[in-house]
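Self-study notes.
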Amino acid sequence: MKEFKIFQHPTGKQEAVKQGWSWPGFFFGPIWALVKKLWGLGAVLLVVVLMLSAVPVETEVGMLASLIMLVIYIVCGINGNSWREKNLRSRGFEHLDTVSAANPDGAIAVFLKGRQENSPVE
């Protein structure tokens, strides 16, 4: 089981953000950022990664470029979920709870189930 923070928008939409390392952020960096609506970060990462990818790996500069890209992807893995939390807050989402579940959809289901059980019966 993993820990997820549950965020809710005033419109009622919920989002679950896993705590800790972000494997999608590590493996997919710029694309992951764009999919998660981190537009500025995703655009900057995409430009930097494309520029670094253009350098031939056979050169010393290319080796350095590859190392820099690896560091970028590690930073995305370490910080990805906290970047996502900050982005959700800036878009009007509010942190409501932290739950344990196997995946984000399961986390939202656990949250909603707990909410139903704790609501007063009329």
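Second protein, same conventions, sequence then structure:
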Amino acid sequence: MKFLKEIADWAYSLAVAIALAIVINAFVFQPTRVVGSSMEPNLHHNDYVFVSKLNHTFAGTPEYGDIVIIDSRVFRERSVKDDIADPVSTYLSVAKITEIDNHIWIKRVIGKPGDTIEIKDGKLYRNGTALDEAYIKEPMRPAEPKKVVIPPNQVYVMGDNRNNSSDSRYIGPVPVSHVLGKVVKVL
């Protein structure tokens, strides 16, 4: 009987620890792994980063230049279920048990609500001013000119490796509710 009580106590303690870890990873702080080369030269495939989730938890808007993780499924609403399921999936990928979900992207914030973003002749302009972007891997290849006004409660994000990045140029502005956290530490 004592043996069964001890097993039950251990199981209870383990369940509480796992639940607490999920809540912390969903709403406070989360490790994640970079997949792909879209953020080179600053972040590389398989780099580990720590992400603060406090802005997401309290519905804050990120700042220009912040490196953030986003849910790229911008045409669907996010729920608390997503907030809990995504960190579990990401944690399993950090432990290399599974691959990271391909809808979670790491990008840099380029535009905030009300900004006009324009791409022409391989250059990026915010509100009519060309940005000096020392952090990008190489100049963008010229493409069709594009001009976007960022709606309320949305941001425009791009990878630092502009010629090899899926970002707001393809999915459009990202709702702030889909900005899951800010990278605060790179290992």
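Instructor comment on the second fold: The first helix runs from residue 2 to 27.
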